[in-house]
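Backbone-to-sequence.
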């Protein structure tokens, strides 16, 4: 394993966490915690760059298919942009990707779907997105009421959907591919979606943006971030998911977990913590 990749064999399914790079988030965008405590938690977790948020995508390989979960930022706003090069290191070209499942349509998850010129990066891929997420993105009332930052995010997402419209599918809570199940995890966005992958030996939950700063938000699950569409619901969803993965001892993949990508979660005295699965 290196800093770009980490993989898990679930039996008959191989899942690889692939780095797209990182973005930086100011701690003042976090609610229910002060700056000094954020720094203390990050230092105690031995984070070299305290406000860096790592960006992962996940490659699912099963029955001859190459399926991506999210596509990273692709260099949008200067974030990430390493996915395609890292796929090459795995012996894959962009044309080898058969499908892309989106957890949601924020720039650090969909920016990698288009080049800087607005052209499709993955021409042979079917793009799958939650129906609730898609409907929100297309709703003009929501767009008019949004902040400028959110408006720009929606414009990017609409453009992605338009470019991929010939291969775009809307999904609900369902089995989107054999042994890959869409799990609604609303709050961070209206259609924020996780994916449960059931292998012959082990299951895995790719949980999208349940956390952005895992060491902070697992220790203190009530900490929300300004990017949350509904902070209260996002917090409730986070608490429910944390209880579930602890109860079931389920392996988790997080878009913002750091390069290793995967972990188990355990309860501690005040909140939860990461248990890196080596």
């Amino acid at each position: 394993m290196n800093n770009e990749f980490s993989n898990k064999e679930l039996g008959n399914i191989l899942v690889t966490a692939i780095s797209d790079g990182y973005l930086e988030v100011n701690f003042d965008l976090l609610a229910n915690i002060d700056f000094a405590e954020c720094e203390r938690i990050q230092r105690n977790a031995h984070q070299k760059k305290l406000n860096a948020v790592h960006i992962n995508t996940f490659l699912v390989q099963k029955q001859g298919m190459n399926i991506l979960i999210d596509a990273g930022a692709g260099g949008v706003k200067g974030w990430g942009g390493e996915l395609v090069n890292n796929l090459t290191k795995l012996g894959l070209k962009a044309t080898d990707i058969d499908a892309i499942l989106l957890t949601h349509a924020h720039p650090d998850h969909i920016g990698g779907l288009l080049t800087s010129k607005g052209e499709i990066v993955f021409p042979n891929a079917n793009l799958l997105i939650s129906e609730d997420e898609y409907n929100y993105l297309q709703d003009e009332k929501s767009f008019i009421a949004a902040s400028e930052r959110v408006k720009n995010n929606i414009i990017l997402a609409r453009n992605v959907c338009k470019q991929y419209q010939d291969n775009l599918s809307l999904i609900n809570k369902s089995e989107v591919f054999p042994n890959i199940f869409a799990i609604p995890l609303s709050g961070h966005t209206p259609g924020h979606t996780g994916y449960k992958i059931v292998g012959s030996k082990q299951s895995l939950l790719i949980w999208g943006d349940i956390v952005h700063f895992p060491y902070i938000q697992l220790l203190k699950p009530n900490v929300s971030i300004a990017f949350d569409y509904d902070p209260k619901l996002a917090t409730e969803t986070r608490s429910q998911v944390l209880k579930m993965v602890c109860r079931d001892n389920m392996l988790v993949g997080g878009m913002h977990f750091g390069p290793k990508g995967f972990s188990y979660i355990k309860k501690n005295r005040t909140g939860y913590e990461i248990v890196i699965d080596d």
